[in-house]
Amino acid sequence: MRVLVVEDELKVIAILKQGFEEEGFTVDVAFDGKTGHLMALGTQYDIILLDIGLPHLNGYELCTLIRRRDAQVPILMLTALGTTDNKVEALTLGADDYLVKPFEFRELLARVRALTRRARPDFGPVVLQAADLELNPSTKQVTCDGQLVALTAREFALLEVLLRHKNEVLSRADLIEKVWTLNFDTGTNVVDVYINYLRNKIEKPFGRRLIQTVVGMGYVLRDEPVAL
């Protein structure tokens, strides 16, 4: 498994490189955002770890650039910035997880393995379906009424969870836990933001509602669509 670490602290780099290599990973290191961007463009990585306070191109900017090219590669932000606003911004820009320094390497390793496992699902039905919506976990493709719909990695993960729990009401806390794998203020609106992103892509163009809001409880994706 190949990991790209974009980090400018030599001590942190040494810890990560030693730890991952002992676990059998191949580790590439970039010391600034611009170099990290070039490396991400030129190599297929299983996961990318980003600091936020990077020279030349910060972690938020780099995450955005990577997501424009690759909607699927897992991105984990590894940073000393630990406020809810920092986390929400990173997740909204396309990061899959967020770990605050200082950290225990074994926790980081567990998160990396969980993210890469989700990126290569080998369970469940070949195609998940509701009405005319189909999601293929293996090919990472989504279609509505036979038309291919482009989703970001986070949108895809959220839709996959909703489909795997079809007709089941999921709270915002449930969705944060299953999709973002983070424990942070459940009062954040990041779930609502991404539900709206999905609705703009899989509902509005097709004139029907699949994801329904259950007031005071959360969201549910139902088999039977409702006309908009």
Decide which structural class fits the backbone.
alpha/beta
What's the total count of β strands?
A: 11
Low-confidence stretches: none
Give the count of structural domains. Answer: 2
Largest sheet: 5 strands, parallel
H and E order: EHEHEHEHEHEEEEHHHEE
- CATH homologous superfamily classification of the largest domain: Response regulator
Instruction: Supply Rg.
Output: 18 Å
Shape: elongated
Assign the CATH class of the largest domain.
Alpha Beta
Modified residues (4-aspartylphosphate): 51
DNA-binding region: 125-223
GO molecular function, one term: phosphorelay response regulator activity
Domain Response regulatory: 2-116
In short:
With 228 residues, the chain is of the alpha/beta class.
Keywords for this structure?
228 residues, alpha/beta, Rossmann fold, Arc Repressor Mutant, subunit A, 5-stranded parallel beta sheet, 4-stranded antiparallel beta sheet, 41% helix, elongated, Sig_transdc_resp-reg_receiver, Response regulator transcription factor, transcription, transcription cis-regulatory region binding
3D architecture notes:
Keywords: DNA-binding, Phosphoprotein, Transcription, Transcription regulation, Two-component regulatory system. By secondary structure, the chain is of the alpha/beta class. It folds into two domains: 2-119, 3-Layer(aba) Sandwich (Rossmann fold), CATH 3.40.50; 128-227, Winged helix-like DNA-binding domain superfamily/Winged helix DNA-binding domain (Arc Repressor Mutant, subunit A, Orthogonal Bundle). The chain contains eight helices and eleven strands. The strands form three sheets. It has a five-stranded parallel beta sheet, sandwiched between helices. Strands 6-7-8-9 form a four-stranded antiparallel beta sheet, covered by helices on one side. It has a two-stranded antiparallel ribbon with strand order 10-11. Helix 2 packs parallel to helix 3 (59-69), helix 6 (153-164) packs across helix 7 and helix 6 crosses helix 8. The radius of gyration is 18 Å and the shape is elongated.
